[in-house]
Amino acid sequence: MRQESVIDGIGHTPAVRLRVDAPEGVEVFAKLEMQNLFAMKDRVARQVILDARRTGALAEGAPIVESSSGTMALGVALVGTYLGHPVHIVTDPRIDPITLAKLRTLGCEVHVVAAMTGQGWQSARLERLAELMAGLPGAFWPQQYSNPQNPAAYRGLAGELVADLGSVDVVVGAVGSGGSLCGTSRALLERLPEVSVVGVDCVGSVLFGQPDRPTRKQSGLGNSLIPENIDYRLFDEVHWLSDDEAFDATRRLAREQKIFGGNTSGSVYRILTHLAARAEPGTRLVGIMPDRGDRYVDTVYADAAAEEAGAVAAAPEEVEYGATVSSWSFARIPRRDRRLLLFIESNTTGTGMIALRTAVRLALEPVLFTKDAARYPDLADTGCRVVVCDTDDEAALTAAIAGVSAGRRVAGVTTTSEFYLEHTARAAAALGTPGNPPEAMTRCRNKALTRTALREAGVTQPRFAVVTEADAVAAAVAEVGLPCVVKPVGESGSQSVLWCEDARTAVGHATELLAVTHNVRGQRTPGAVLVEQYLEGPEFSAELFGVDGEARCVGVTQRTVSPLPHFVETGHLFPADIEDALAERIADTARQALKAVGFERGPAHVELRLTAAGPAVIEINGRLAGGMIPELIRPATGIDLLEQQIRAAAGLPLNLSAEHDRRAGLRFLTAPRPGRLTAVTGVGEAERVPGVERVLVSGTPGREVRPPRSAYDRLGHVIAVGSTPQEVGRALAEAAGLIEVGVEGE
């Protein structure tokens, strides 16, 4: 057919039949996306750039910046430069010389990052991309990992398959950004609802529940980050290949089918032929072959690569989804009738919604039980089923759970809201799914019961008294001594915790707390207040995870807090800059505390003060740490604690082994004085400070602000990553010095 321009020639690739060893009547086709001008991502580049020009996101002649080490870079170079845009490509040292030569010849400026950062090469490239965007006014970033135009670009591919073949029973594709296979299969399933979708990934990629191994050699598939464009609800099965297995399959593709493809095409070929050999007569299978092999001549196709290759599995091992693999393996992910993971409410921050999406990624079907779905503004984007019921009415909640779970397999019950830990434990016990004893969660939630359990177990803690009547406060203060701390027994986030220098302040604050009958979730308060001894010393927290009754310490966090009389966290360092022996003393005290309350399973966050006599327990939280601490643990160790919480609740294999040893720190943004927030400036400059991984502003102009009295007064944060505490501290100090929180009034 006649084409009007070069970019009109994108697509229309052939589907060729392969000669494979398969039962009579089984047909196997390869969709040769490598026959695009450069490769499959030409489709994405055309779709994204033309859409951006149409909507005005990309002005005529404005620069385009993208992060890629392969075919997306080539596609952006093709379409962008053809339409008259300067194109900047951010890549890493793994880029092959042929691709690099093509990019430069097409007229691109190529930026090669020097070293990996917190989350491998991907995060290093994204940091450099952010710097370029800040220095190029009007620049457009295609954002292939999150732009919905990426999967939308493949509706045309699906249409070509149907036009050429009529019907398809199995589609096999590599998964990197998630666009090609998800976009193609979503469009196919609209026409052919029985199509089976098989994803191909590499060992050491995080996309399908594996630990990250940034040293993996394959390109074009796999990832160190989770792209937003992957729709995990579309898959029926996933296969993982090691580097050697993928490279061997790529050479076999050329030798057996005369198709000189890249390692993504080879990986697809290996899985395609395996499935074909076991298919029923009449089955039609299609594999999407993304790119040519010319940029792999010095790696995959080199004689040395073949000679040095390790063992290659003749067939895959079937594993439970979530198990760690090291060679060719596969897991079934039933698209229909997946196991349910029940969430009883959630926190209202991003973590809660991320947890729902994580459940989908782990091949579970999340169901959220809530009083008020409107409380969660991003809920619709998670793909989660929502059941509205009175979550504080045990009978109503039990009935709602019974209605949802009838005839379905329930993997477990969990929550990301501290206010619903007891509800979750009772529901899990009733269903017989993994969880903590309900009485343990009651002891964690009620700080008075926590104190009593610790006292009975002989765990070091402050002197305390529990008060239920205002006229008993003075006696409690006299018993505990001054200065003291007065706090509610059932709140969260340092809410209403006050240091009291004199008895009058303590009595006044306790009286106010006793007058509160319901918390922020509308639950009835316990009607009690704690009066505690104030302990001098630096603050730490131990981040632990219960596994089969054993509390494993992931690490110790060093914490800074606001000036007295409040106790709001203002910054963290993970792991703490202390001797190993002291860290172990802190961890051991925290383990004793968890044992005292009966905690057995999942994440726990124990807050302590280091006194002259040693560590003393201030508080036990039977849940994941707040204050963004999990966001420090991930870049510091590679452990995603939120994912591990979901795994623990569903009875899936855990991965609590550190992948690397780095330091990560955080500093919260707060108002210098009371008033109305006008603006937070200097964010762009702070983001460009070496070592800074993220700057997030949550405060919106016009909001009433004040110096922090609780966690709800924080206005954002800065996260930095480095090799030493000093390196992290310098980055945080420099970034914080560039940010100004503007406040007017009062």
Describe the 3D structure.
The protein is an alpha/beta fold. It is built from 22 helices and 30 strands. The protein has an eight-stranded mixed β-sheet with strand order 1-2-9-6-7-8-11-10, sandwiched between helices. An eight-stranded antiparallel β-sheet has the order 24-23-20-21-22-25-29-27, with helices on both faces. Strand 21 (550-561) and strand 22 (569-574) form a beta hairpin. Helix 11 (350-361) crosses helix 20, helix 14 (438-445) crosses helix 15 (447-457) and helix 15 crosses helix 18. The N and C termini lie far apart (71 Å).
For the structure shown, list the relevant keywords.
746 residues; alpha/beta; eight-stranded mixed β-sheet; eight-stranded antiparallel β-sheet; globular
Q: Structural class given helices, strands, pairing? A: alpha/beta
N- to C-terminal distance: 71 Å
- Helix count equals 22
> Tell me, what's the shape?
globular
Q: Could you tell me the mean pLDDT?
A: 93
- Radius of gyration from the CA trace? 28 Å
Strand content: 15-25%
Tell me the major beta sheet. Answer: 8 strands, mixed
Count all strands and give the number: 30
Helix content: 25-40%
Low-confidence stretches: none
Strand order of the largest sheet: 1-2-9-6-7-8-11-10
